[in-house]
Hints:
The complex is a heterodimer. Chain A has nine helices and twelve strands.
Amino acid sequence: MGYILKDxxxxxxxxxxxSGISLEIGTGRFHGVLxxxxxxxxxxxxxxxxxxxxxxxxxxLGGRHLDDFNAGELxxxxxxxxxxxxxxxxxxxxxxxxxxxxxxLGRFSGPGAKDxxxxxxxxxxxxxxxxxxxxxxxxxxxxxxxVVFARALAQDPACLILDEAFANxxxxxxxxxxxxxxxxxxxxxxxxxSVMQDLNLAARFCRSxxxxxxxxxxxxxxxxxxxxxxxxxxxxxxxxxxxxxxTIKCRQVVFL
Amino acid sequence: xxxxxxxxxxxxxxxxxxxxxxxxxxxLSAAMGVVCLPFVQVLAVxxxxxxxxxxxxxxxxxxxxxxxxxxxxxxxxxxxGLSVSGVVFQGILKNPLADPYTLxxxxxxxxxxxxxxxxxxxxxxxxxxxxxxxxxxxxTLAVVLYLSGGTAGGYSSGNLILSGIIVAAILSAGIxxxxxxxxxxxxxxxxxxxxxxxAKTWTDAGLSLAFxxxxxxxxxxxxxxxxxxxxxxxxxxxxxxxVKKTRLILLTAASLMAAVCVSVSGIIGFxxxxxxxxMRPVVGADNQWLMPVxxxxxxxxxxxxxxxTRAVLPSELPIGVLTALIGGPFFCYVFKRQFSGKQKx
Lengths: 256, 345
């Protein structure tokens, strides 16, 4: 499910973040959101997940106003993998992943066969089945990140929102999860909106990139059009060389 | 490990065992005391009363029905209320060291009680101590919620804990002042603060039952949301929880439970902190099971403690002192065992 944002203004107490941005995030694509620290990436995600409300402007999800969804409906459509994830209580990995099914369950009804299956699939896909009975408090940062990822997959969303979801992961798991998500985009029409820092990973897996700087859209479009040396300089003030890599058949960036 | 997971998969069994244990302990403690009565007589008296028959043995009936059972039920209900409240506070504040008193509920109740004692002695005799304690606790909750809400991170864990500490500190100073001003009559206040179930009536038991059961039902209803809130506000919101509203409802329910418990029995520490910690290794962290199991375990624990001080010790010790004396060292043990292996982060 895609989003349409119209004239969004948002500010915290006295600090303006967005002053009238409009953009369209198309359905069934892998979108990368890039920009320097503090440029408003996470705030943008908070707005589209409904965690924060814009002061003015409209956000449409699948053509319907975001305010018209109740929290439960929204949770069936959109899943979020947040940036900060710490749990102080000894839930097992299995319990945490099953929490992704809560929005689909009645308040007191237990998980059914389909829920169990989705949870097992999500754990297998993220490679955490082996420690499904361990407590999340005992896991390393990267392992915990995969548990949260599995929880979002188990939620079976139409739109998956990732806030630097690969930050703590080793390269094998990063590539594994990126490929998994990209496949679901291609085969199941999943929409993915991923805030990330690694330009090369974004270039390789995303189809469309959104560069944000100081709450403004610096560039937005297909990777081949917007991933250029001038855009990178404009957004990050870093000189770079963008080239086409023959081995992985996509654009890559080296920083000079 | 496999043995542990075997138990965890059946928290229902744990709840059942605790329920039976509670029934047993109630009968047992009704038989114990200065006058030792046979268990059968306890059952007979309860049977008589339930069917409205005349007492076969008037003395035994009076001891069991009018003296011991109200106290027993009050102790069990207060234990249950404090434990469920403890689970909820730890869950909402995302802090395993939180307890029902973290937001200053106990200080508020204590201040209310002190005011009642103080003016009872000088100006308005007949002021109900329990009622004033309850009012003090509710007002404290209101102030803490007012202080911690409103800003961007409304009712966030940090905001709530800080507001609670500030308000409790002010109230403690107030309590000290009242103690000082009360002069030699200070002992009444001090005894109340140490907590006791002595001379509880059916009214006390009924009142605490009403509040605790309503509070517990509300908390159980939001059990899943409490689980989700442990994952952080953003994650909980993305899983369909109205975080701010749910937190407010749960805080109010848990605080009112704690408030009525304190008003009835004085300040009984460590139950609300300890019981959730004892139960987590047994049934896991899932609040949907942790709450009912802690409810039963708290009831059993506080009833045992009260029976111990009433019937076993040569002279009665204030229950708050006893729970702190036993609970404190025990908590050190639990704390050391649970956290020592996990600081590798």
